[in-house]
Specification:
single chain, alpha/beta, 4-stranded antiparallel β-sheet, 12 strands, 325 residues, 8-stranded mixed β-sheet, 11 helices
Length: 325
């Protein structure tokens, strides 16, 4: 199998800017990566770094400013309305807030059936066919059949998130953007949902882009991890490599903040001092330079270019690329 046969998603130089008073907010700025079939790319970074915007831009829920998104051999950004509707069967999303993303007037069965009707896989009069398909999907995600007529406000967060997963699975997609799908849940429920998602990935051959700010979660579920800072990718590597040998100073600081369960063990936390670079008209140079202990004049004199520092380990830090740190 060639590399092209393995790839299901290729993103090239993706940008998403928003017009704001005073200029242009660079929410996603020149990001490129690929995801292989049946694998999970974890995306991490601080709140506001552009993770969710990137996921939505790939699906064209936000129209990208520029760039290229190739999904399963198709140029997503060149598709017309009808072709885009058809490809949405294969590209789905699980939203962060399961309550806000569900229609409070729809029962569980109606919420899961909605995509089937929108894509015209079933007609409204085929009540028996819809009922069987909804039951099948509910069983797949571990929802009891007795909940079929329940409303979102009657369910806890874990069950609501299972509805979100069920709705995403209804069209039998190939690729799912998981936008912080467990961040609103208790730790014990998080584990159930993560295990469910891994089981479904094995059963159905799903490919995930898993967006989160929880580093312990992303390590558990991901094959590769992409680290974002203020709209840009600063590091990308296989999960085990990123956690054992982070190269970018921002990634090192991020990983140092992971809580240690032993109260007697020293944390060795790396403190990031200095002010944030504004994402509005940020200019050239490294956006982490103002907070980086290794920054030099060259870091602010030129745009950072991501390069392979080690095998399958990519980083944008100029000083790492030079071998100085």
């Amino acid at each position: 199998m060639t590399d092209l046969d393995k790839e299901i998603l290729k993103v090239d130089h993706l940008k998403k800017y928003f017009s704001v008073p005073g200029g242009s907010l660079h929410a996603v700025d020149d990001i490129s990566f690929t995801i292989n079939k049946g694998e999970t790319l974890g995306v991490v970074g601080e709140s506001g770094c552009g993770k969710s915007t990137m996921g939505r831009a790939i699906l064209r829920l936000h129209e990208p400013t520029s760039g290229c998104v190739i999904f399963d051999g198709k140029d997503v950004l060149a598709l017309g309305k009808q072709d885009m509707k058809a490809i949405r069967r294969d590209m789905q999303i699980i939203f962060q807030d399961p309550f806000a993303s569900l229609n409070p007037r729809m029962t569980v069965s109606e919420a899961i059936a909605a995509p089937l009707l929108v894509q015209k896989l079933y007609v409204k009069n085929d009540k028996e066919g819809i009922r069987k398909r909804v039951k099948e999907i509910m069983e797949m995600v571990g929802l009891a059949n007795r909940l079929v007529n329940a409303y979102p406000h009657e369910l806890d967060g874990g069950r609501r998130q299972r509805i979100g997963i069920a709705r995403a699975l209804a069209l039998e997609p190939k690729f799912i953007v998981c936008d912080e799908p467990v961040s609103a849940l208790d730790v014990s429920i998080q584990a159930q949902i993560l295990n469910l998602m891994l089981d479904l990935q094995d059963q159905l051959g799903l490919t995930y882009m898993f967006i989160t700010h929880d580093l312990s979660v992303v390590k558990y579920i991901s094959n590769d991890i992409l680290v974002m800072y203020l709209g840009q990718m600063v590091e990308k590597a296989p999960a085990d490599k990123l956690f054992t040998k982070p190269l970018h100073p921002y990634t090192q600081a991020l990983l140092s903040a992971i809580p240690v369960p032993d109260p007697d063990q020293a944390m060795n936390r790396i403190s990031m001092k200095g002010e944030l670079t504004s994402p509005v008209n940020p200019g050239i140079g490294c956006r982490f330079a103002k907070r980086c202990p290794y920054a030099c004049p060259d870091c602010t004199a030129q745009d950072m270019v991501i390069k392979e520092a080690e095998e399958e380990h990519f980083v944008t830090c100029l000083r790492v690329q030079r071998g100085e740190i």
